[in-house]
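Subject: Protein entry, chain in single-letter code together with its fold tokens

Area: Proteins and the way their chains fold up in space.

Attached in line: The record itself begins immediately under this heading.
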Amino acid sequence: MKLFKSIEIGQLLGKYLTGKEYKEEFSTLQEWINQNDENRKLFKSLKEEKNMADSFDEFEAINKEIAWKRYVAHVDNLSLRKLINWWKFAAVFFFLIGCAGVLGYLVEKNNLLPLKANENFTTISTNYGQNSKVILPDSSVVWVNSGTTLSYNTNFAVNNRKIKLIGQAFFHIARNEKMPLVVASNDLEIKVLGTRFDVSSYPEDKNISIVLESGSVEILKAKDHSVIQKLKPGEKAEFDTENRRLSISNVDVYNYTSWKDGVLIFKDESMTKVFEKLERKYNIDVEVKSNKVYQLAFNATIVNESIEEIFDLMKFSCAIKYTIIPSRDPNIPVKVLICK
């Protein structure tokens, strides 16, 4: 059974067991049940399991992002063959995350976009201080950075390969010349056949950046799908969302993609960008008390350093002063006060 079909059946099982299936969907589930004895036995055991309702209550009560990360951490160690056998457990996560897309709305910047009727979406979100590695139904791999939301519908790799992105992600896309993958972010679309590239499009940033590691990508206008620019490996496209201008430059790609390996590289980086990246990676709140700080630039490679070690280095190299204010509430980030 192909992976996307396995996920579809898993979702139907999840809907049936929680009373959320549509009448027209049950025929598909019934067809699967009648295929063989193994399917019938599995369905019967799930239906009769007295603890199933409690299990779903527990899943609803916990943070879905944590559940997703646990699932991803597990599948990272599985071969494709084992992954397909794991579908009945993975489906629970796809179903729970997907339900949020069916019943709710996708928030893009400050606009609410209603989803189409009868269209299910899988949504992966990461908080500050978190990141995830996701395997898509077509075997493409996506690294999702902190403070990011990525979503795709359940027809992904069946009749489309469309992804919505708010935040930053690195894509290693499986090649499919008949079905290009399209990443929609703000007013741009990035169209690829199979390649490795990074997209950064946080709502608070003025620019959308696309950095190409290998292969090729086309940058299109979202409104009319017209091609603005084709990128070559080693090139970075930066789109100014206010002035509607696109600039192209040659860059050291790893400086922009190292975050997926847990590394932050700063080369003559403005302090505004430095603080933004540190806030996302470490889930901290940086408050600058002197505008002179923003006139500085920072050079460093951050791997496993603590917050104290990073700001000690900044104190030495940039001559700043800092104060760390701890937080006893896990929902309130640690605050760092900066002055010159």
Remarks:
- The longest strand covers residues 162-172.
- The mean pLDDT is 78.
- The two ends are 61 Å apart (CA to CA).
